[in-house]
Amino acid sequence: MKIRLVTFDLLHTLVTPRYPIHVQYARAFEPYLGPLNPDSLKRSFGIALRELQAEKPAYGGDDPTSWWSAVIKRTALGAGADAKVLDASLSAIVPQLMASFSTKEGYKVFDDALPILHTLHNDLRVHTAVVSNADYRMLSVLEDLDFPSYLSPILLSDGEGVEKPAPEIFLRALRRVNGEQETPIVPAECLHVGDELECDYNGAMNAGMNALLLERSGAEQQEHGVEGQSIQTVKDMYEVLEWMRARS
Q1: 5-16+107-247, CATH topology level
Q2: Residue ranges of the chain assigned to CATH 1.10.150.720
Q3: Which Gene Ontology CC terms are recorded (predicted)?
Q4: With left for phi above 0 and alpha for psi between -120 and 50, is residue 223 left, alpha or beta?
Q5: Quick check: helix, strand or coil at residue 178?
């Protein structure tokens, strides 16, 4: 069945941090907290992020600034920052980091991202959309990085109140695209591309869609699901196009 809608994850799929997140955090922390060990920051950021994702999924209905403030605080403390100094500095550090990760200062676009969107839209006449467990700041990031307006709708878990891997967020994207279609698109005519096995691949498959797991060169490799599960993987967006053309 021909693919009529391709949805994309954002982070590590279409865009990636301009510099490693722990490096950007270290730069923001240093004027207030002094130098912190980069490896400790990388480790503590990962722990803090997973904790908040478990405690308050989809940002817990809070202002994302509060959610990220907790991540930032736990990251600094986990890397050995002085608690009193951190408390006195957090009101300056948080806005700086929130602003940095709202523009191309914090992110860059993968070289193959804009070309595939152009090909899908102009050559293959395929609709494109975003399904991401991100907050509202990614809207300004996409604009700052010159993503096309036809990449729409953009569903972010912050605004939707639901996040991947829940099938609902994928189906919600499909319903919004179908609001403009004479002939409705069905899930089997949809493809989702993302870099996380559970959130992206399994989430889309459970919504009845096709899925490709993106494993970019240099990215951390992940285990391929349960025994016997067949995972379709691609290394870049050009392989996504090859997969689609093979089905045409």
Answers
A1: Rossmann fold (3.40.50)
A2: 19-100
A3: nucleus
A4: beta
A5: helix
